[in-house]
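idk why but the lab printer keeps eating my pages so im just putting this in chat instead. protein + iron/sulfur cluster:
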Amino acid sequence: MNARPGSTWQWQVQNRLTTPQDFAQAFGLGEDWQAFAQQASSRLVLGVTPYYAQLCQAVPALLKTILPDPQELVLAANETSDPMAEEATRPKAAIVRRYPNRALFLLCNQCATYCRYCTRARLVGDRAQQLGKKQWQEGLDWLAQETEIEEVILSGGEPLMLSDARLEWILEGLKKIPHLRFIRFSTKALAVMPQRITPDLARLLGRFKPLLINAHFVHPCELTPQAAHAVELLLAQGIMVSSQSVLLKGVNHQTEILAALFRELYYLGVRPYALYLCDWIAGASSFRGDLGEAQKIHGALRQILSGPMLPKLIADPPGGKAELSAQVLEGNQGYLLTDWQGKLVPYPKVSGPNEKQDPRFL
Ligand code: SF4
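predcted complex ->
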Protein backbone atom coordinates (compact mmCIF):
# COMPACT_ATOMS: atom_id res chain seq x y z
CA MET A 1 0.00 0.00 0.00
CA ASN A 2 1.32 3.47 -0.89
CA ALA A 3 2.03 5.84 1.99
CA ARG A 4 -0.17 8.94 2.18
CA PRO A 5 1.65 11.97 0.61
CA GLY A 6 3.24 13.94 3.41
CA SER A 7 3.49 11.00 5.76
CA THR A 8 7.01 10.02 4.71
CA TRP A 9 10.16 11.97 5.38
CA GLN A 10 11.32 11.46 1.81
CA TRP A 11 8.17 13.21 0.56
CA GLN A 12 8.78 16.05 3.02
CA VAL A 13 12.35 16.49 1.73
CA GLN A 14 11.38 16.28 -1.94
CA ASN A 15 8.57 18.78 -1.54
CA ARG A 16 10.39 21.39 0.50
CA LEU A 17 9.75 25.04 -0.23
CA THR A 18 13.10 26.29 -1.48
CA THR A 19 12.57 29.39 -3.61
CA PRO A 20 11.40 32.95 -2.90
CA GLN A 21 8.34 32.17 -5.05
CA ASP A 22 7.51 29.12 -2.89
CA PHE A 23 7.81 31.23 0.26
CA ALA A 24 5.82 34.15 -1.15
CA GLN A 25 2.99 31.86 -2.17
CA ALA A 26 2.88 29.87 1.07
CA PHE A 27 3.14 32.83 3.43
CA GLY A 28 1.41 35.56 1.42
CA LEU A 29 4.52 37.77 1.19
CA GLY A 30 4.40 41.09 -0.61
CA GLU A 31 6.44 42.47 -3.47
CA ASP A 32 9.03 44.16 -1.25
CA TRP A 33 9.94 40.88 0.38
CA GLN A 34 10.03 39.09 -2.95
CA ALA A 35 12.33 41.72 -4.43
CA PHE A 36 14.69 41.44 -1.45
CA ALA A 37 14.67 37.63 -1.50
CA GLN A 38 15.19 37.48 -5.24
CA GLN A 39 18.16 39.82 -5.00
CA ALA A 40 19.72 37.87 -2.13
CA SER A 41 18.63 34.39 -3.23
CA SER A 42 22.06 33.23 -4.34
CA ARG A 43 23.42 33.96 -0.85
CA LEU A 44 20.58 33.14 1.53
CA VAL A 45 19.81 29.46 1.84
CA LEU A 46 16.08 28.81 1.86
CA GLY A 47 14.22 25.67 2.82
CA VAL A 48 11.25 24.48 4.83
CA THR A 49 9.35 21.21 4.84
CA PRO A 50 5.64 21.36 3.95
CA TYR A 51 4.93 20.04 7.45
CA TYR A 52 6.78 22.91 9.17
CA ALA A 53 5.47 25.47 6.67
CA GLN A 54 1.97 24.56 7.77
CA LEU A 55 2.94 25.11 11.40
CA CYS A 56 4.47 28.47 10.45
CA GLN A 57 1.24 29.50 8.73
CA ALA A 58 -0.60 28.88 11.99
CA VAL A 59 2.04 30.33 14.34
CA PRO A 60 3.66 33.59 13.14
CA ALA A 61 6.39 33.30 15.79
CA LEU A 62 7.65 30.15 14.06
CA LEU A 63 7.59 31.87 10.68
CA LYS A 64 10.21 34.31 11.99
CA THR A 65 12.62 31.40 12.50
CA ILE A 66 12.62 30.43 8.81
CA LEU A 67 11.81 33.59 6.89
CA PRO A 68 14.81 35.63 5.67
CA ASP A 69 14.58 39.28 6.58
CA PRO A 70 16.62 42.22 5.19
CA GLN A 71 18.07 42.57 8.70
CA GLU A 72 19.94 39.33 8.00
CA LEU A 73 22.21 41.25 5.62
CA VAL A 74 23.36 43.57 8.40
CA LEU A 75 26.34 42.76 10.56
CA ALA A 76 25.77 44.08 14.10
CA ALA A 77 28.56 44.81 16.57
CA ASN A 78 30.35 41.66 17.78
CA GLU A 79 28.74 39.41 15.18
CA THR A 80 30.80 36.98 13.15
CA SER A 81 30.23 34.05 10.80
CA ASP A 82 31.86 31.63 13.26
CA PRO A 83 30.88 32.82 16.74
CA MET A 84 32.11 29.67 18.51
CA ALA A 85 35.44 29.73 16.64
CA GLU A 86 34.82 26.17 15.46
CA GLU A 87 37.09 26.54 12.46
CA ALA A 88 40.03 26.89 14.86
CA THR A 89 39.19 23.54 16.45
CA ARG A 90 38.31 21.58 13.32
CA PRO A 91 41.10 19.06 12.72
CA LYS A 92 39.15 17.34 9.93
CA ALA A 93 36.34 18.53 7.68
CA ALA A 94 33.86 16.39 9.63
CA ILE A 95 35.28 16.93 13.15
CA VAL A 96 35.11 19.81 15.61
CA ARG A 97 36.74 19.31 18.99
CA ARG A 98 36.19 22.01 21.61
CA TYR A 99 36.47 19.82 24.71
CA PRO A 100 38.91 17.07 25.72
CA ASN A 101 36.42 14.23 26.12
CA ARG A 102 33.94 14.76 23.30
CA ALA A 103 33.88 15.77 19.65
CA LEU A 104 31.33 16.87 17.09
CA PHE A 105 31.05 14.68 14.02
CA LEU A 106 29.51 16.73 11.20
CA LEU A 107 27.65 14.30 8.93
CA CYS A 108 25.85 16.57 6.55
CA ASN A 109 25.51 20.24 5.75
CA GLN A 110 21.96 20.02 4.43
CA CYS A 111 18.91 20.62 6.62
CA ALA A 112 15.25 19.78 6.25
CA THR A 113 14.46 23.36 7.26
CA TYR A 114 16.93 26.24 7.50
CA CYS A 115 16.77 28.36 10.64
CA ARG A 116 17.66 32.05 10.32
CA TYR A 117 19.63 32.05 13.61
CA CYS A 118 21.78 29.00 12.82
CA THR A 119 25.20 28.96 14.48
CA ARG A 120 26.60 27.04 11.48
CA ALA A 121 25.06 29.27 8.84
CA ARG A 122 28.54 29.47 7.32
CA LEU A 123 28.35 25.77 6.46
CA VAL A 124 24.74 24.76 5.98
CA GLY A 125 23.27 24.54 2.53
CA ASP A 126 26.64 25.15 0.82
CA ARG A 127 27.01 22.39 -1.75
CA ALA A 128 30.72 23.19 -2.11
CA GLN A 129 31.22 22.00 1.46
CA GLN A 130 29.27 18.76 1.06
CA LEU A 131 30.36 15.99 3.43
CA GLY A 132 30.42 12.38 2.25
CA LYS A 133 31.98 8.99 2.75
CA LYS A 134 35.56 10.27 2.34
CA GLN A 135 35.12 12.88 5.11
CA TRP A 136 33.21 10.40 7.33
CA GLN A 137 36.02 7.83 6.99
CA GLU A 138 38.60 10.52 7.86
CA GLY A 139 36.46 11.41 10.88
CA LEU A 140 36.25 7.79 12.01
CA ASP A 141 40.02 7.36 11.59
CA TRP A 142 40.67 10.54 13.58
CA LEU A 143 38.28 9.48 16.37
CA ALA A 144 39.96 6.06 16.55
CA GLN A 145 43.27 7.75 17.33
CA GLU A 146 41.99 10.21 19.92
CA THR A 147 41.67 7.93 22.92
CA GLU A 148 40.54 10.70 25.31
CA ILE A 149 37.29 11.07 23.43
CA GLU A 150 34.45 9.18 25.07
CA GLU A 151 31.45 10.78 23.45
CA VAL A 152 30.70 11.69 19.86
CA ILE A 153 27.97 14.15 18.92
CA LEU A 154 26.55 13.53 15.45
CA SER A 155 25.52 16.85 14.04
CA GLY A 156 25.57 18.94 10.89
CA GLY A 157 23.47 20.49 9.32
CA GLU A 158 20.88 17.86 10.01
CA PRO A 159 22.44 14.43 10.61
CA LEU A 160 19.09 12.71 10.06
CA MET A 161 19.03 13.87 6.44
CA LEU A 162 21.20 10.80 5.84
CA SER A 163 19.50 7.57 4.81
CA ASP A 164 19.21 4.73 7.31
CA ALA A 165 21.88 2.79 5.36
CA ARG A 166 24.42 5.61 5.62
CA LEU A 167 23.67 6.18 9.28
CA GLU A 168 24.13 2.47 9.92
CA TRP A 169 27.51 2.53 8.15
CA ILE A 170 28.68 5.42 10.33
CA LEU A 171 27.26 3.99 13.57
CA GLU A 172 28.90 0.61 12.86
CA GLY A 173 32.20 2.46 12.35
CA LEU A 174 31.80 4.29 15.65
CA LYS A 175 30.90 1.09 17.49
CA LYS A 176 34.28 -0.39 16.53
CA ILE A 177 36.15 2.38 18.39
CA PRO A 178 36.63 0.99 21.90
CA HIS A 179 37.11 4.28 23.80
CA LEU A 180 33.85 5.76 22.43
CA ARG A 181 31.31 5.12 25.17
CA PHE A 182 28.38 7.26 24.09
CA ILE A 183 26.67 8.51 20.94
CA ARG A 184 24.59 11.66 20.86
CA PHE A 185 22.62 13.07 17.93
CA SER A 186 21.94 16.77 17.73
CA THR A 187 18.87 17.13 15.52
CA LYS A 188 16.06 19.47 14.59
CA ALA A 189 14.19 16.70 12.74
CA LEU A 190 11.70 16.05 15.53
CA ALA A 191 10.50 19.65 15.26
CA VAL A 192 10.58 20.20 11.51
CA MET A 193 10.19 16.69 10.06
CA PRO A 194 9.08 14.22 12.74
CA GLN A 195 8.22 11.78 9.93
CA ARG A 196 11.98 11.06 9.86
CA ILE A 197 11.65 9.02 13.05
CA THR A 198 10.28 5.87 11.49
CA PRO A 199 9.96 2.58 13.37
CA ASP A 200 12.90 1.28 11.29
CA LEU A 201 15.12 4.24 12.22
CA ALA A 202 14.19 3.97 15.91
CA ARG A 203 15.08 0.24 15.84
CA LEU A 204 18.37 1.01 14.08
CA LEU A 205 19.35 3.67 16.62
CA GLY A 206 18.27 1.37 19.45
CA ARG A 207 21.01 -1.08 18.41
CA PHE A 208 23.64 1.50 19.29
CA LYS A 209 22.61 2.32 22.86
CA PRO A 210 23.55 4.10 25.01
CA LEU A 211 22.39 6.79 22.64
CA LEU A 212 20.85 10.20 23.19
CA ILE A 213 18.73 12.13 20.75
CA ASN A 214 19.15 15.77 21.67
CA ALA A 215 16.29 17.42 19.84
CA HIS A 216 16.01 21.12 19.10
CA PHE A 217 12.64 22.63 19.99
CA VAL A 218 12.05 26.36 20.39
CA HIS A 219 8.30 26.69 20.83
CA PRO A 220 5.49 24.64 22.41
CA CYS A 221 3.57 24.72 19.10
CA GLU A 222 6.26 22.43 17.68
CA LEU A 223 5.06 19.68 20.03
CA THR A 224 2.45 18.30 17.65
CA PRO A 225 0.97 14.78 17.77
CA GLN A 226 3.50 13.81 15.06
CA ALA A 227 6.41 15.08 17.18
CA ALA A 228 5.02 13.29 20.23
CA HIS A 229 4.76 10.06 18.20
CA ALA A 230 8.40 10.42 17.10
CA VAL A 231 9.45 10.78 20.74
CA GLU A 232 7.39 7.69 21.68
CA LEU A 233 9.08 5.59 18.99
CA LEU A 234 12.52 6.55 20.32
CA LEU A 235 11.66 6.05 23.97
CA ALA A 236 10.17 2.62 23.17
CA GLN A 237 13.62 1.55 21.94
CA GLY A 238 15.28 2.68 25.17
CA ILE A 239 16.82 5.74 23.51
CA MET A 240 17.24 8.79 25.73
CA VAL A 241 15.68 12.00 24.44
CA SER A 242 16.54 15.51 25.58
CA SER A 243 15.99 18.94 24.10
CA GLN A 244 17.93 22.13 23.67
CA SER A 245 16.39 25.48 22.82
CA VAL A 246 17.67 28.87 21.78
CA LEU A 247 16.27 31.98 23.39
CA LEU A 248 14.91 34.00 20.46
CA LYS A 249 13.31 37.43 20.48
CA GLY A 250 10.01 37.47 18.66
CA VAL A 251 9.74 33.69 18.99
CA ASN A 252 10.01 32.45 22.57
CA HIS A 253 11.51 35.32 24.57
CA GLN A 254 8.79 35.09 27.24
CA THR A 255 8.56 33.16 30.46
CA GLU A 256 5.08 31.78 29.68
CA ILE A 257 6.05 30.41 26.26
CA LEU A 258 9.19 28.74 27.56
CA ALA A 259 7.41 27.39 30.64
CA ALA A 260 4.83 25.74 28.36
CA LEU A 261 7.56 24.33 26.14
CA PHE A 262 9.62 22.82 28.95
CA ARG A 263 6.59 21.51 30.82
CA GLU A 264 5.18 19.77 27.75
CA LEU A 265 8.56 18.34 26.76
CA TYR A 266 8.93 16.91 30.22
CA TYR A 267 5.49 15.32 30.12
CA LEU A 268 6.39 13.69 26.80
CA GLY A 269 9.43 12.15 28.46
CA VAL A 270 11.96 14.59 27.01
CA ARG A 271 14.40 16.21 29.39
CA PRO A 272 14.83 19.96 28.71
CA TYR A 273 18.60 20.10 28.84
CA ALA A 274 19.78 23.54 27.74
CA LEU A 275 18.50 27.00 26.93
CA TYR A 276 21.15 28.77 24.86
CA LEU A 277 21.57 32.46 24.34
CA CYS A 278 21.40 33.26 20.64
CA ASP A 279 24.98 33.13 19.38
CA TRP A 280 26.71 36.14 17.87
CA ILE A 281 26.06 34.80 14.42
CA ALA A 282 26.14 37.32 11.58
CA GLY A 283 22.74 38.78 10.73
CA ALA A 284 20.86 37.38 13.75
CA SER A 285 20.53 40.58 15.79
CA SER A 286 16.73 40.62 15.52
CA PHE A 287 16.67 37.39 17.55
CA ARG A 288 19.16 38.36 20.24
CA GLY A 289 18.25 39.66 23.68
CA ASP A 290 20.71 40.75 26.32
CA LEU A 291 22.20 38.30 28.79
CA GLY A 292 20.64 40.20 31.71
CA GLU A 293 17.15 39.74 30.21
CA ALA A 294 17.85 36.03 29.71
CA GLN A 295 18.81 35.69 33.36
CA LYS A 296 15.56 37.35 34.41
CA ILE A 297 13.50 34.98 32.26
CA HIS A 298 15.43 31.99 33.58
CA GLY A 299 14.96 33.19 37.16
CA ALA A 300 11.20 33.44 36.58
CA LEU A 301 11.16 29.93 35.09
CA ARG A 302 12.95 28.63 38.16
CA GLN A 303 10.06 29.84 40.28
CA ILE A 304 7.37 28.02 38.32
CA LEU A 305 8.98 24.82 36.98
CA SER A 306 10.05 21.77 38.91
CA GLY A 307 13.81 21.09 38.93
CA PRO A 308 14.02 18.48 36.12
CA MET A 309 11.89 20.68 33.82
CA LEU A 310 14.31 23.59 34.06
CA PRO A 311 17.13 23.61 31.49
CA LYS A 312 20.50 25.19 32.18
CA LEU A 313 20.95 28.68 30.81
CA ILE A 314 24.09 28.64 28.68
CA ALA A 315 26.14 31.12 26.68
CA ASP A 316 28.61 29.79 24.14
CA PRO A 317 31.56 32.15 23.67
CA PRO A 318 34.49 31.08 21.46
CA GLY A 319 36.47 29.17 24.11
CA GLY A 320 33.61 26.89 25.16
CA LYS A 321 30.34 27.12 26.98
CA ALA A 322 29.60 29.07 30.14
CA GLU A 323 26.68 28.09 32.34
CA LEU A 324 25.01 31.18 33.70
CA SER A 325 24.39 29.63 37.09
CA ALA A 326 28.10 30.29 37.70
CA GLN A 327 29.54 33.70 38.46
CA VAL A 328 28.58 36.49 36.01
CA LEU A 329 30.20 39.92 36.43
CA GLU A 330 28.67 42.93 34.73
CA GLY A 331 30.54 46.02 33.59
CA ASN A 332 29.71 48.97 31.36
CA GLN A 333 31.10 47.34 28.23
CA GLY A 334 29.94 43.79 28.74
CA TYR A 335 29.95 40.76 30.99
CA LEU A 336 32.57 38.42 32.37
CA LEU A 337 31.37 34.82 32.43
CA THR A 338 32.88 31.79 34.07
CA ASP A 339 33.51 29.23 31.35
CA TRP A 340 33.59 25.42 31.62
CA GLN A 341 37.24 25.56 32.76
CA GLY A 342 36.52 28.11 35.50
CA LYS A 343 38.16 30.92 33.51
CA LEU A 344 36.62 34.37 33.26
CA VAL A 345 35.76 35.16 29.63
CA PRO A 346 34.34 38.38 28.15
CA TYR A 347 30.85 38.34 26.70
CA PRO A 348 29.34 41.33 24.86
CA LYS A 349 26.26 43.28 25.81
CA VAL A 350 23.60 43.69 23.19
CA SER A 351 24.28 47.24 22.15
CA GLY A 352 22.66 49.87 19.97
CA PRO A 353 22.81 50.21 16.23
CA ASN A 354 26.54 49.80 15.67
CA GLU A 355 25.75 48.06 12.44
CA LYS A 356 27.34 47.75 9.06
CA GLN A 357 26.61 45.86 5.87
CA ASP A 358 27.71 42.27 6.26
CA PRO A 359 30.86 41.96 4.07
CA ARG A 360 29.49 38.66 2.73
CA PHE A 361 26.85 40.66 0.92
CA LEU A 362 28.81 43.67 -0.30
S1 SF4 B 1 18.42 22.62 11.58
FE1 SF4 B 1 20.19 23.05 12.90
S2 SF4 B 1 21.94 23.08 11.51
FE2 SF4 B 1 20.09 23.29 10.25
S3 SF4 B 1 19.76 25.47 10.01
FE3 SF4 B 1 18.55 24.84 11.80
S4 SF4 B 1 19.93 25.19 13.54
FE4 SF4 B 1 21.21 25.18 11.69
